[in-house]
Design brief:
Layout lengths: L2 H20 L13 H8 L15 H15 L2 E7 L6 H12 L2 H7 L11 H13 L3 E8 L1 H8 L15 H9 L2 E3 L9 E3 L3 E5 L11 H10 L3 E5 L19 E5 L9 E2 L3 E2 L2 H8 L3
Parallel strand pairs: 1-2, 1-6, 2-5, 6-7
Antiparallel strand pairs: 3-4, 8-9
Length: 284
């Protein structure tokens, strides 16, 4: 063996010995002592934004007080609803899109001379960033109750036998309540803003009044949001609006549906949806 080979071999054996000495054995692992209940308490603080009159007698009263406090602050309140089962990337982006629809009305209330519709798209987006960063827009989401989802979607052939909903109402509501986004005014990326500011429930099967959309109308009539935003495929909800004079003051926005991907396209699923996720799990 030449000198160079001998030196290399000694270096190799030395490195291996050091590695062996640094290996972690099962006996050296320390186990965390924080109880699950403590972590659960931290996480469930999102529940402070959840208002369900079926579980809390004063839930609606508390939500209405919160809505009134936003009005006094001059904030824009946007309302929308949905099932939000098996929460995915498009759900998350849709919630932020809904919140952003409040920027135009916020701009109008500032009484700028130039109308919103005459602003260049870039200027509209810049103003939306400022309004979102200032937390001047609040979002209320009503999540469909379990019975209602089962009644409307439980036998949908597109779901190929998957249960509807997969998650119970409380799980869906808590996942919605926990959503946040990075402030568009923060270059560091360290400031998070809640996407959803309050979560509640609507029926109709979960309430005594079993009219198809009555719980929607009753809820919006009470809350009097500045804007009621609906997704294109759900605009049938609005069919009864002309029959409700108390809803005349509520501006309505519709986010148009489209055939292709919306906000996010998955490498395996493509256009995101709860049904497509369920079908992939089942290998369909």
């Amino acid at each position: 063996m030449c000198v160079a080979e001998y030196i290399l071999r000694m270096l190799y054996l030395g490195a291996m010995k050091e590695f062996e000495g640094n290996k972690t054995s099962i006996d050296t692992i320390s186990y965390d002592s924080l109880p699950y209940s403590y972590v659960s308490t931290l996480h469930h603080r999102f529940g402070e934004k959840v208002f369900n009159p079926n579980l809390q007698d004063d839930a609606t009263e508390k939500l209405l007080k919160l809505r009134e406090s936003w009005r006094k602050q001059g904030s824009i309140a946007v309302f929308s609803s949905g099932v939000f089962d098996m929460l995915h990337m498009d759900h998350m982006a849709y919630l932020l899109h809904v919140k952003a629809t409040g920027a135009a009305l916020h701009y109008k209330q500032q009484e700028y001379q130039k109308p919103w519709n005459e602003l260049a798209t870039e200027r509209q987006q810049e103003y939306t960033n400022r309004a979102l960063g200032a937390r001047a827009i609040k979002l209320i989401i009503s999540v469909d109750g379990d019975k209602s989802v089962t009644a409307r979607k439980g036998n949908d052939p597109k779901k190929n036998g998957a249960p509807a909903p997969v998650y119970g109402w409380e799980t869906r509501a808590m996942m919605i309540a926990s959503q946040s986004f990075i402030s568009p005014d923060d270059d560091s990326g360290n400031i998070l803003i809640p996407t959803v500011d309050a979560v509640t429930i609507h029926g109709p099967q979960d309430f005594s009044d079993n009219n198809v959309h009555s719980s929607h109308f009753n809820l919006v009539s009470q809350l009097q949001p500045d804007i009621w935003t609906v997704f294109g495929e759900s605009k049938d909800i609005l069919e009864g609006v002309p029959l409700r004079p108390e809803l005349d003051a509520v501006a309505i926005r519709c986010i148009q549906d489209s055939a292709g991907p919306h906000y996010f396209e998955d490498a395996f699923i493509g256009k995101m949806s709860t049904t497509s996720i369920s079908n992939r799990i089942k290998g369909i």
